[in-house]
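Exercise 7. Given the components listed, write out the predicted structure of the assembled complex. Treat all entries as one system.
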Amino acid sequence: MFKIVRREELSEGTVVLNEIEAPQIAKKALPGQFVILKSGEDGERIPLTMADTDKEKGTITIIYMVVGKSTELFKTLQVGDGYEDVIGPLGKPTHLEKVGKVVCVGGGTGVAVLHPITRALKQIGNDVTCIIGARNKGLLMLEDQMREASHDLRICTDDGSYGHHGFVTDVLADVLAGGDIKEVVAIGPVPMMKAVSNMTREYNVPTLVSLNPIMVDGTGMCGGCRVSVGGETKFACVDGPEFDGHLVDFDELNLRLRAYLDDEKNCHRDFCTIRDAQ
Amino acid sequence: MAEQGAKKQKNPRVAMPEQEPKVRARNFLEVPTGYTVKMAQEEAVRCLQCKKPGCVDGCPVGVDIPGFIDLIAQGDMTGAIRNLWAKNALPAVCGRVCPQEIQCEGKCIVGKKGEPVAIGNLERFAADYEREFGTGELPPVEPATGKKVAVVGSGPSGLTVAGDLILKGHDVTILEAFHKPGGVLVYGIPEFRLPKEIVAQEVDFLSRLGAKVECNVVVGRTVSIDELFEQGYDAVYVGVGAGLPRFMNIPGENYVGILSANEYLTRANLMKAYKFPDVDTPIPMGKNVVVLGAGNVAMDSARTAMRLGAESVKIVYRRSREEMPARIAEIHHAEEEGIELFLLTNPTRYLGNEDGRLTGMECLKMELGEPDDSGRRRPVAVEGSEFELECDLCIVAVGSGANPLLTSETPDMALNKWGNVVADLKTGKTTKKGVWAGGDIVTGAATVILAMGAGRDAANSIHDYLTLGW
Ligand SMILES: Cc1cc2nc3c(=O)[nH]c(=O)nc-3n(C[C@H](O)[C@H](O)[C@H](O)COP(=O)(O)OP(=O)(O)OC[C@H]3O[C@@H](n4cnc5c(N)ncnc54)[C@H](O)[C@@H]3O)c2cc1C
Ligand SMILES: Cc1cc2nc3c(=O)[nH]c(=O)nc-3n(C[C@H](O)[C@H](O)[C@H](O)COP(=O)(O)OP(=O)(O)OC[C@H]3O[C@@H](n4cnc5c(N)ncnc54)[C@H](O)[C@@H]3O)c2cc1C
Ligand code: SF4
Ligand code: SF4
Ligand code: FES
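Answer.
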């Protein structure tokens, strides 16, 4: 069992942080890599990015949004409980390089994935501007950590309850217009990553996105995670999860993410009905 | 010969009792239900106890077939299983899944004039009898040598290496990427053909002998082979299988509803998605299902789809029936269960709707032309024969290649041009010191018994190395 040693609820309980004992994984993990977790014998294998690792303590940290049955089950796990299976580190680490001015754009739980990458980009000497967004102030996550990890933090909310009233792309447009941006990293919902990539394409700024297709094994063995990048089929779990945003077919990814939507909805609804009845 | 012919007619091969096709096509219970003692003994006496048995030549690991069959005939079931174990660590598995018709039974003399002795059924019987009534007594383990061996991958090949080396007194640890051990035996071959309980017992047997099984370790990611040596392992066996799905590379392949057989069968078997929503992993329920390919993997996929409630299941294959690589028994089972064969048919593109979901595929009719390099007549397209097949689920079972995850992280272990590990045919030695390899990662997708045979050869070589040197 992989024991949970710390647990926090963020964004009004819609997002949960777990710090988990996994010394073998912590030792090897690099920014951008993910793990696959399974909570019990009949559980689903769920991929989550490592938001942090502590090699000395032998722990990894994950931050997940509660969206369906499996993440709802994860949410019931308390400190002292654990995951039956944690597999990793999986995926290619982020290619980190000192290029000058970079902009990191994060939306929703994408911010959790973005955090270690932002921190690493700053550490190796880049000038990092960060733009993070959420639907409202309550849902915004890791504000302090992101401020610490960057030189300049900009905040947006869809409803204007905090920071700029509007989308992260509004702020990005300004920053890009300022010129001299060498790289953009965008991690968040598919429509956000698509909008950012379309915008940066016009400015010819290289853009890295992190894709989250449905996965099973995470080792290149099932092909369920395939995505089209520059007209070629790639397996996100081994060739990614990060890709050149200018080449990704986001529309296809969006359709593929909906493959089990109805099944999952029913399963989640049944789970909540049973849970609430108890 | 005349006498043999007469004998055959007097005692026909004892048929294996099976679930009725109509019933079993909708459940996941094992299809053949197994011989009774009486049936097994009746079948055993059909063996002529040949002095120069052809059957043994046909078995890749040289099981003493007349020997174990004679013990069954005499009612010494314990003797029979011990005899089998001497050459084959997984008789319950091989009895069920070996392609006997081209191996042992294909060379049985009785088969020349009639039906061969049911070697596979008898092998299965002896193993099942032992599981049910055996004493569970463990074979003796040699004194500890203090040498540590890591076995990467827990398929039939890795399990064989682990079993052989633990008995020789070495300290063995199996490292498996998935959360459950067994390789294709658990994630690929379905419950109705190989109950998972059997595989679990085999692994449990190794654990009781002292082998350690560590799941969730992806070698090449969680730990590298060089790090294993740093951790104190003296030898490493690589038995990671052929885990890279092949697709057709035709237009529309990323529509929702097109899955590799690896994904489909992993969801169904390893994740038990056929019990969804009682378990958490979903599996697409096709109404009209097409399976591409005609090997065991394709048969397993098609029969799984039928059991999940499909209205129609079609196997689309570009060659003819004779070239179908699946075991004959499985083709027969599939057809009995209502699966249709679309032979000499080649898909050219997938059709989908605006939601990106599969709605059908376009196919071409083929005819057999001149023989190709492999000696098989090459299928050529019939011009203007395009037609559409309606389907909402397509399972691609056209083969699998070598997964580069581990090998790309181990640059000093040589690969061939297809990405398979280069290993000595007799010993399994790779070009990297202290590292052996065998099974599908060396040969490409093959069979359980060949993977086990390679494991046995490598185990002998590893033992020599640990006691004598490289
Ligand atoms: C490499 C990778 C890294 C990820 N990192 C994180 C992370 O750090 N934090 C986080 O909150 N989430 C992350 N995800 C997404 C996370 O895996 C899914 O949210 C999770 O699988 C949903 O499981 P569920 O059973 O709770 O929901 P389900 O009931 O399976 O699904 C609920 C909803 O989410 C959609 N969905 C299903 N699977 C995915 C998926 N893989 N990605 C996106 N949507 C999906 C469904 O279509 C449905 O709309 C990552 C995904 C990948 C592939
Ligand atoms: C659906 C299906 C049906 C089949 N039917 C038959 C049949 O009827 N008869 C027959 O004889 N053969 C059949 N075969 C073929 C047979 O199963 C294989 O040839 C055999 O299993 C190969 O054994 P192996 O030990 O080499 O590898 P596998 O059984 O593939 O096992 C390899 C193991 O290594 C693990 N692994 C992979 N990479 C890593 C890594 N980096 N680190 C740690 N672990 C790793 C995998 O998860 C897996 O558990 C079938 C195959 C399939 C897929
Ligand atoms: S191991 Fe396979 S080939 Fe050998 S005797 Fe048994 S069933 Fe036949
Ligand atoms: S060839 Fe047939 S008859 Fe002869 S020993 Fe083998 S199984 Fe028996
Ligand atoms: S998740 Fe199976 S290949 Fe990527």
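Discussion: The longest strand of chain B covers residues 358-371. The domain at 2-133 of chain B is CATH 1.10.1060.10 (Fumarate Reductase Iron-sulfur Protein; Chain B, domain 2).
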